[in-house]
Design a protein that fits this description.
333 residues, alpha/beta, TIM Barrel, M1 Pyruvate Kinase, Domain 3, 2 domains, eight-stranded parallel barrel, 36% helix
Length: 333
């Protein structure tokens, strides 16, 4: 059976919609803790459990940690970054950790908000950097930032991650999604913190989101319960046309180690606005399962999209068709 995960958000955070999603085959749900604390999600988690109970199922509830992902600091409103204009990162401007600023050099390309915004570093002065915007967009607080081709050392867990884990067992969380796993040390640090926080039985889903994570996969694959091919940030680490090959490479490694893996990111992206997916999207889901994926997940499609229950219907039915084909191939039919 393929696990089907949605993502909690304003469009589905009510018992009626959640129950419909579970009835259509959703087996679990992701709670993104990039912008909220687990303590503040208690009512939402209660709704998830009640909706699942009414649908006759027991949900898997995953929390997506902050981890070592680089992010700009928190600020109010939206900063418009227009193509052809300059902007300052750091200090009283757009808040950015000094470690990130210190790693920047003139000529570096900067990706913001999962690559939606592209800029180039023109000058670095102490704790600030001046950037030239090459691809425009609106930036809000705590969005991702990446220096193309560079890794900035950060701890595996943030202080907020550690605080969130204190409530995980009490709230019925079943697993954590650990972002930007780089090596075995990251997962050992996570496992140790789970022990300290009183939730040692939580499943660890290791997100592969950088080439460092890809290259070191065999080093840490046995230290997690499931691998996640997280194509959003992973796609920012290379030219996009290389991403399918890297996805295949990760899937092959997981099969060789008999390790379950999940595929996520833009699986039904068009359905944030459309009631029907594209042919390319259903083919993507089908092929991910044929490659051995044991889980598939949607994010914005259910969190902010217009048709959360329809998204789950297409995700479930397409995954089931692929699973049926796998079984037919095994029996030689």
């Amino acid at each position: 059976m393929i696990d089907i995960f949605g993502t909690l958000g304003p469009k589905c955070d009510n018992e009626i919609m959640l129950k419909e999603m579970f009835l259509r085959g959703m087996t679990g749900i992701r709670i993104n803790l990039s912008h909220v604390k687990l303590f503040d999600c208690k009512d939402s988690i209660d709704r998830i459990k009640q909706a699942a109970k009414e649908a006759g199922t027991t949900p898997k509830i995953l929390i997506d940690m902050q981890g070592p992902e680089l992010r700009v600091g928190d600020f109010d409103g939206v900063v418009s970054l227009a193509k052809g204009y300059y902007q300052t990162l750091g200090d009283e401007w757009i808040p950015v950790d000094e470690k990130i600023i210190r790693a920047m050099e003139p000529g570096d390309e900067i990706l913001l908000d999962d690559g939606k915004i592209l800029a180039q570093v023109k000058e670095v002065k102490g704790t600030t950097a001046e950037i030239y915007v090459k691809r425009s967009g609106g930036l809000t607080g705590k969005k991702s930032i990446r220096i193309v081709g560079k890794e900035v050392p950060m701890p595996a867990l943030t202080d907020e991650d550690i605080e969130n884990l204190k409530f995980a067992s009490e709230y019925g969380i079943t697993g954590i999604m650990q972002p930007f796993v780089r090596n075995r040390d990251d997962l050992l640090a996570v496992r140790n913190q789970l022990q300290i926080s009183g939730c040692p039985d939580l499943r660890i889903y290791a997100k592969v989101e950088s080439m460092e994570g890809v290259e070191n996969l065999e080093n840490y694959i046995n230290d997690c319960d499931e691998i996640i091919i997280a194509r959003g940030d992973l796609g920012n680490a290379m030219p996009l046309w290389e991403l399918p090959g890297v996805q295949k490479r990760i899937a092959k490694t997981c099969r060789e180690h008999n390790k379950p893996f999940m595929v996520v990111t833009q699986m039904l992206s068009s359905m944030e606005k459309s009631a029907v997916p594209t042919r390319a999207e259903v083919s993507d889901i089908y092929n991910a399962v044929l490659d051995g994926a044991t889980s598939v997940m949607v994010t914005g499609e259910t969190a902010i999209g217009e048709y959360p229950h329809e998204v789950i219907k297409y995700l479930v039915n397409t995954a089931n068709e692929a699973d049926k084909k796998i079984k037919q191939n095994k029996t030689g039919e």
